[in-house]
Design brief:
The chain is about 45% helix and about 10% strand. It has 3 domains: about 100 residues, no CATH class; about 120 residues, no CATH class; about 160 residues, no CATH class. With about 475 residues, it is of the alpha+beta class. Strand 6 and strand 7 form a beta hairpin. The protein is elongated, with a radius of gyration of 29 Å. The strands form 2 sheets. A 5-stranded antiparallel sheet has the order 1-2-4-5-3, with helices on both faces. A 5-stranded antiparallel sheet has the order 6-7-9-10-8, with helices on both faces.
Length: about 475
């Protein structure tokens, strides 16, 4: 990875002179985890952080050879090993912080690459589970994540450029794209946005997305994030630009359209007819979770003439003991569902599942028996909650859950007019969004009939568009 220069608070004279051990140690005052090892026979001093280096590599490439070689042979050692000469204090300090070992010998300073901290092994993703297809997922080590991509795309057209973000953390950010497939305007725009980020700390790719997206105040996510290397590889081949952050197990890609949040990696590993049916089911679930409860409130409050007579009698009987109007009743139950959902997500897995199931059954039954809510409303809220789980993207599902409360309030005050007005406002907002200067509603705006086949359904591979790419940049 590219090493960036640290900007120390030293004087210009110190920057222009060869770094000394005393100067470097001054930067690490009160850093008790810094290891300082001396080899009297070779007259050298080695500085490194023990938890940032690989012990076997350190012993094999540096400490072992130093004990065997005499002082006169030190130059030969550093010629043989992969090393860099540190000419400035800033370079040496930054190298140590990046997991290198600094060797001080006479008036010279060498940096040896022995980076190898402990990291999580490659495992299956817990948030993006699939039935078929690969089960490996990204981890928190950028080098490991890049290897998962390189293993799938064995092409020299895959370009990877490194940047840094965070004035304190100096986090490495990798920008990936396929030369000849990705739009040059998108690549240059992403480079410009990443280099212009001004923040103290960067720990996660979703943090980066919030700094570089076009509409930070919108509820809808504008960058698709994923932990799956197979999905990232597929998007790179399709001409997407990907950003990966060191320390983050997820990657973000652009340009992204609204409909991509309803696609799952499973779609590409099953027969196209089955995958198409499942994708359409997700779009239907999106409409259900967004409008079903609001539609119930509007019908019960203002438009009960739309309900069949037999069903109307049952609803009236169910609501006879409820002291609250439909709007208050619906908001209470939706709020309770969100509390259960959040409690289940924050608790340990086994306890969280128990809280979600038992809590929902007990509270729902108790609410009906106590006359706080009607049985019809509980069924409506439950269907809306289940439909929200069908959406593959957690960020999109969360945004829809928040918007649902606004539609319920509009429906409670204005009936169907308020519900339709809210949906029109959402549609106008979606049509106005841009993702790195690209329309968020592609291929609807602008209308590209050729791409419809792989947007609302997953068409057969032989019908996949090839050749020149359609430009959506405006």
């Amino acid at each position: 990875m590219k090493r960036s220069l640290l900007h120390p608070k030293s004087t210009q004279e110190q920057e222009n002179s060869s770094p000394s051990l005393k100067e470097v140690l001054r930067h690490f005052e009160r850093c008790d985890d810094l290891i300082e090892r001396k080899t009297p026979d070779a007259d050298t001093t080695v500085l490194y952080f023990n938890h940032l280096v690989e012990e076997d590599k350190l012993e094999r490439n540096l400490l072992g050879p130093l004990r065997e070689k005499k002082e006169a042979d030190i130059n030969e050692l550093f010629i043989e090993e992969q090393s860099a000469v540190g000419k400035k204090t800033a370079e040496v300090v930054d190298g140590i912080l990046s997991g290198e070992a600094a060797v001080f010998w006479k008036n010279q300073t060498f940096l040896i690459d022995v980076y190898g901290p402990e990291s999580r092994t490659v495992q299956s993703s817990e948030t993006e589970t699939v039935v078929s297809g690969p089960h490996d997922a990204f981890v928190e080590t950028l080098g490991t994540n890049l290897s998962l991509i390189r293993r799938r795309i064995k092409s020299f057209d895959l370009k990877i450029e490194f940047f840094q973000a965070g004035t304190v953390t100096k986090t490495d950010v990798a920008l990936l794209y396929m030369k000849g497939r990705a739009e040059e305007e998108t690549v240059e725009e992403m480079k410009k946005r990443i280099t212009s980020v001004k923040m103290d700390a960067l720990f996660e790719s979703t943090m980066l997305a919030q700094y570089i997206d076009d509409h930070p105040n919108s509820l809808f996510p504008q960058f698709l994030t994923t932990e799956r290397p197979d999905l990232i590889s597929s998007k790179l081949v399709d001409g997407k630009v990907v950003a990966m952050v060191d320390g983050s197990p997820s990657a973000l890609m652009t340009p992204t359209s609204f409909f991509e949040f309803f696609a799952s990696p499973d779609d590409f590993y099953q027969r196209w007819i089955l995958s198409s049916a499942t994708r359409l089911l997700r779009l239907v679930a999106f409409l259900i979770t967004l409008t079903f409860t609001a539609f119930y409130v509007a019908v019960i409050t203002y438009h009960y003439e739309l309900i069949p007579e037999d069903l109307l009698l049952q609803i009236a009987s169910s609501r006879a003991q409820v002291p609250f109007p439909p709007l208050v009743e619906a908001l209470m139950m939706e709020f309770t569902i969100e509390l259960l959902r959040e409690a289940g997500a924050r608790l340990p897995t086994k306890i969280g599942q128990t809280i979600g199931i038992v809590g929902g059954i007990v509270i729902g039954q108790a609410a009906v028996q106590a006359g706080i809510a009607s049985g019809i409303l509980l069924v409506t809220v439950a269907i809306s909650a289940i439909a929200s789980f069908v959406i593959p993207s957690y960020l999109m599902s969360t945004a829809i859950r928040v918007i649902r409360f606004g539609l319920i309030i509009l429906a409670g005050f204005l009936g169907h007019f308020g519900l339709v007005a809210g949906l029109v406002f959402i549609l106008i907002h979606l049509a106005s969004l841009r993702n790195v200067r690209t329309s968020y509603m592609v291929p609807l705006t602008p209308l590209v009939l050729r791409d419809m086949l792989f947007t609302f359904i997953r068409g057969p591979y032989w019908a996949r568009p090839k050749g020149a790419k359609e430009k959506y940049i405006k």
